[in-house]
């Protein structure tokens, strides 16, 4: 299968003038539909920067990021918004659910923002997929961390993105709950053919992945196929 996400010799320099940081120093990566990829390496090695580039939330200083047949640099604001809404989902360490919306309303929100008028049916279907349908009407503060992350995964999938970016998604969960979330991510990659890029500190979590990318000082040191 041809790669859907292609990072080609990407660099990212923050700042200008005297204080610059080279967060990425020439990173290349090819990812095929359905691949679950772990980005590992110590804090500051460039994992979050690379995720942001792959989500078209940020852009390489040199080099390119291609999503499908679109290169992220040089797009109009409208094209960028469309690309992010239709192709990309994000999940985070602290879940970032909106506290005033119920679980199902959180899941619906990205679909409503994309202009859909009644996404309830699809939101409920996704809640079934993440095994949270019985909690659809709970508020976030009535959910455990693992339950909130499952809701966040459903929310990230509601517009059916080709790429799911996960920044330390189990960093705030205990081991057993983290394993449930990792299992759900693996199932998402398999069943929906979603590309998943996951930044993680936990070496155990790489057992769930197809590809492990070890980063150091803004470079890829080693790529291991599982
Ligand atoms: N907005 C920013 N401005 C300046 N430096 C940044 C910014 N974001 C990240 N950095 C720096 O870039 C490097 C890589 O950071 P990051 O991608 O967040 O690493 P990781 O996610 O692996 O911990 C670090 O040295 C960090 O301090
Ligand atoms: Mg990070």
Describe the structure concisely for a colleague.
This protein is of the alpha/beta class and 226 residues long.
> Proportion of β residues?
25-35%
**Overall 3D form:** globular
Structural class: alpha/beta
Estimate percent helicity.
Answer: 25-40%
Please tell me the CATH architecture by its name.
3-Layer(aba) Sandwich
Task: Give the topology.
Layout: E1 5-14, E2 21-31, E3 36-40, H1 47-54, E4 62-67, E5 70-71, H2 77-87, E6 88-92, H3 103-113, H4 120-129, H5 145-157, E7 163-167, H6 175-192, E8 195-199, E9 211-216, E10 219-225
Structure explained in plain terms:
It contains six helices and ten strands; from the N terminus they run βββαββαβαααβαβββ. The chain is α/β, with parallel strands linked by helices. The chain has one domain (5-225): 3-Layer(aba) Sandwich (Rossmann fold), CATH 3.40.50.300. The chain has a six-stranded mixed sheet, sandwiched between helices. Strand 7 (163-167), helix 6 (175-192) and strand 8 form a beta-alpha-beta unit. The radius of gyration is 17 Å and the shape is globular. The two termini are 17 Å apart. Bound molecules: adenosine-5'-diphosphate and magnesium ion.
Task: Pick out its properties.
binds magnesium ion, 6-stranded mixed sheet, binds adenosine-5'-diphosphate, alpha/beta, 226 residues, 4-stranded antiparallel sheet, globular, 27% strand, Rossmann fold, 10 strands, 6 helices
């Amino acid at each position: 299968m041809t790669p859907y996400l292609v990072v080609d010799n990407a660099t990212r320099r923050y700042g200008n003038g005297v204080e610059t940081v080279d967060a990425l120093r020439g990173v290349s990566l090819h990812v095929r539909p359905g691949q679950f990829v772990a980005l590992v390496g110590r804090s500051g090695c460039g994992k979050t920067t690379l995720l942001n580039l792959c989500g078209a939330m940020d852009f390489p200083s040199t080099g390119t990021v291609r999503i499908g047949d679109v290169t992220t640099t040089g797009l109009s604001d409208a094209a960028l918004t469309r690309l992010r809404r239709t192709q990309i989902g994000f999940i985070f360490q602290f879940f970032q659910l909106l506290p005033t919306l119920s679980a199902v309303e959180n899941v619906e929100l990205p679909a409503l923002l994309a202009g859909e008028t009644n996404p309830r049916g699809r939101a409920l279907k996704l809640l079934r997929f993440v095994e949270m349908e019985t909690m659809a009407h709970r508020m976030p503060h009535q959910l455990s961390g693992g339950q909130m992350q499952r809701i966040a995964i459903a929310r990230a999938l509601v517009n059916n993105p080709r790429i799911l970016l996960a920044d330390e998604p189990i960093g705030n969960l205990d081991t057993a709950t983290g394993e449930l979330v990792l299992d759900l991510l693996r199932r998402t990659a398999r069943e929906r053919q979603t590309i998943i890029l996951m930044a993680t500190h936990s070496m155990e979590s790489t057992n769930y992945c197809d590809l492990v990318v070890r980063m150091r000082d803004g470079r890829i040191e080693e790529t291991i196929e599982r």
